[in-house]
Amino acid sequence: MTGLETDVATPIAEAPPALELRGIDKWFGPVHANSGVSFAVPRGSIHGIIGENGAGKSTLMSIVYGYYQADAGQILVNGTAVKITGPQNALSHGIGMVHQHFMLVEPFTVLENVILGAETGRILAPSLERARAELERLERDYSLEVNPDATIETLAVGLRQRVEILKALYRGADILILDEPTGVLTPQEVDQLFDILRALRDQGKTVILITHKLREIMALTDNVTVMRQGEVVANVKTAETSREKLAELMVGRSVLLRVEKTVATPGAEVLAVQDLSVRDGQGVRRVKGVSFDVRAGEILGIAGVAGNGQSELLEALAGIRPIESGSIRFKGTEIDATHMRNARQMRELGMGHVPEDRQRMGLVVSFQANESSILGHQDNPKYTGAILMRQSAIVADVAEKMERFDVRPSNPLLRTSAFSGGNQQKIVLVREMDQNPDLLLVGQPTRGVDIGAIEFIHKRLIAMRDQGKAILLVSVELDEILSLSDRIIVMFDGGIVGEVSQAEADERKLGLMMAGERLGAAA
Amino acid sequence: MIALAPPTQVPRWVTHVLVPVTNLLVAFVIAGIIIAAIGEDPFKAMKLLVLGAFGASDLIGFTLYYTTNFIFTGLAVAIAFHCGLFNIGGEGQAYVGGLGVGLVGLAFSGWPAPIVILIAIAASMAFGAAWAFIPGYLQAKRGSHVVITTIMFNFIAAAMITYLLVEVLIQPGQQAPQSREFDANAWLPFMHDVLRGIGINMGQSSLNLSFVIALIAAFLVWVFIWHTRWGYEIRTVGANQAAAVYAGISPSRNIILAMLISGGLAGMVGINEIIGVHHRLILDFPAGFGFVGIAVALMGRNHPLGIFFAALLFGMLYQGGSELSFDIPTITRDLVVVIQGLVILFSGAMEHVFRPHIIAAYIRIVGGRAVGAAAE
């Protein structure tokens, strides 16, 4: 293994590292998910593990937490080699994990969730009382305030995450692993989480943070391990590196983190939404009377924490979800609850749609790539005759598109599921962009997409805007919203909290709005 | 040095040939153990089974006659499956399709043969499709599961046709619940008669021109599913309904369409049985062909070519099995059903038992070596 830049710091002199990995190897069939992974995490530090999707971060942590067994290599906890056979066993070595998706029983109280699976004795009451005392001590020590008697379903996402952390601490975790903990949080909640993690570190706990967000690594960690294609490419002190350097290490080449674009020159109105309300599949009203418009030659960004009505709004605009009330005017065509258009008709009117979830909606993963590449355009005379489809024309057309958008591998006959997230997204993007729509709806364009492809996708969106097309961008990634949008509206609980121009937007302001605080449309 | 190879895709011959052949071998091994347990020689039984199916031209004829039915019902199950539907009502749809054929045979006495036969073919499809339409409509619009409704419609079809044959269509003056024989102009020519016309001698069997119709149907189904946009839309609905809605493809329309085609194909069993062989409407002629079609489709991996081979296999089991029980009386008709059942069990119901192991073994032997070589 070459390229280890510096050794890790040792805040407490001479003490063995809290966790050390030596030469971890893991194969899944022919896939070498981890290859000779070695690094050490000093006691009382925050250690970041960063890498793109598929770099092997999650596999590695699953090995540490005992879900998988490594094919080779050693795990040392406090200098002693251990064999971790499962999550219970990991906890007995003081390793706790906070998952990306919370594992809480919603109708139970915080206290009940904390002791779940760690009850002692046959009668619940005494262990509840003991747990309450212990929980209060933990909350005090680490400033982790949560009401022990609140039921989980009444708690905000940030508080639920605290319960997960408390669960791990209650079980005696000394080493806390957090897997992509900030995905569902508002920026303010992220700040609070970081404060908690710093408090934990200062009390001597060891924290391991798995993320793909460079900003979090720079803001929080002491040391960082960069992984690429199953290998450790660098172990560095955070203070001695930079975002650009880390990005380069992750991708293996230098990348442009900021999008370069000129000021927009908005033209005529393309889309006008008036008092639109939409219900979800369960009949819950998720979009509550929103009004806005999008003009030619601009990107309108919709920011918001996931689940505040953005998805339903996007689907209603695309003709997928029925409108409850209000109206949409798209290029002069009025659409409302009594005059609905389906997705095919919206496409014919000149709307493109890159859906939020490409695997659930944008592609058919079991189809060949060329079949997925005509989804929604199967009626196009370019692709089908009166009866038979023009198979060779489809394959040739898709091959050309793959070439142009640098989809790898550029084989239209491969199954869609054989492509990586970024390449799948490019397949969707080129399909929707190539129809030359006047309005492109884009949902989470870079979710699960590696950094190199993000750069490419952002450039394409800007280029499309510069050709005078309108783009409506929905993203939960604030960085993306901030760098791409010309105007930004923020959704909270189905309504629009406010609108800001790109120039006056910043993370703090948007964060407050995402939490539902109305700033008023600042001038 | 590579670390992350793209996920290996095993070649088609592994999933499409090796897996079904393994399933079949296991079924025959267990059948052989059972035959040995009752004191008969399994190898001799196997030989008799194969010879009984392919040993002479008339025996081949009977094998292909059964094969015809299995092609129709296998295709019916497959096309519904491509739309994500499990149509287990092939039995009832075949029965009602046969009713349509029978009504044409009774009503169009004296018309020119080609016209009667064409109308009868159209009626088989229309009646079968109509019988599948109701479950399809209920699934599409009301969410009533086709597995439940189609199996109930099998019983309704059986009861309805029993009633019609006992009370309405029965030949006057007869005791047996069956219609009168059709005029000869409504008979589909037997294959041995057709072949004699071009100078080929074939022993007499039930094989008739329906076999050719079944082959044409298989080809058209292949074209429809993989080379038309309607097939594309049906497959999209079957694979991912959210993606279908996103693409502006109506799931309910395609569910109904797939069920109509499926029922129409199952109904074509009526051509083979009613104007092909019996020349009158009789009770219970589908005789389980509709149900075996499920195993045929599963084994044929819902591809018309695979369905042809699976149908041929079951045709062999049916024909060879009856010869076998004739030649070795201790191997009763029921034991032949057991052998057929084992094949259905291993190639249909337990299809996924060996599959992952065979694929894993292939990757271990071939895939593992490939990566090892690349890493050097």
Q: Please, could you describe this protein's structure?
A:
The complex is a heterodimer of chains A (523) and B (376). Chain A has 17 helices and 20 strands. Chain A is of the alpha/beta class. Chain A folds into three domains: 1-94 and 175-250, P-loop containing nucleotide triphosphate hydrolases (Rossmann fold, 3-Layer(aba) Sandwich), CATH 3.40.50.300; 102-173, no CATH class; 269-350 and 437-514, 3-Layer(aba) Sandwich (Rossmann fold). In chain A, strand 14 and strand 15 (333-336) form a beta hairpin. Chain A starts with 18 loop residues before the first strand and ends in a 9-residue tail after the last helix. In chain A, 47% of the residues are buried. Residues 1-10 of chain A have low confidence and may be disordered. Chain B is built from 16 helices and no strands. In chain B, helix 4 packs parallel to helix 6. Chain B is globular, with a radius of gyration of 23 Å. The N and C termini of chain B lie close together (7 Å). The interface between A and B is large, with 45 and 35 residues.
User: Residue share in helices of chain B?
Assistant: over 70%
Fraction of residues in H or I helices of chain A: 25-40%
Q: Calculate the terminal CA-CA distance of chain A, rounded to whole Å.
A: 56 Å
Taking the alpha carbons of the first and last residues of chain B, their distance comes to 7 Å
β-strand number of chain B: 0
User: What's the total count of β strands of chain A?
Assistant: 20
* Strand residue percentage of chain B: under 5%
CATH level 1 name of the largest domain in chain A: Alpha Beta
Strand count, sense and barrel status of the largest sheet of chain A are: 6 strands, mixed
Query: What is the CA-based Rg of chain B, rounded?
Result: 23 Å
Structural class given helices, strands, pairing of chain B? Answer: mainly alpha
CATH architecture label of the largest domain in chain A: 3-Layer(aba) Sandwich
Uncertain segments of chain A are 1-10
Our count of helices of chain B gives 16
Shape of chain A: globular
Give me the side-by-side strand order of the main sheet of chain A: 6-7-8-3-9-10
Rg of chain A over CA atoms, rounded to whole Å, is: 25 Å
Average of the residue pLDDT scores of chain B: 90
Q: What is the number of independent domains of chain A?
A: 3
Q: What global shape of chain B is seen?
A: globular
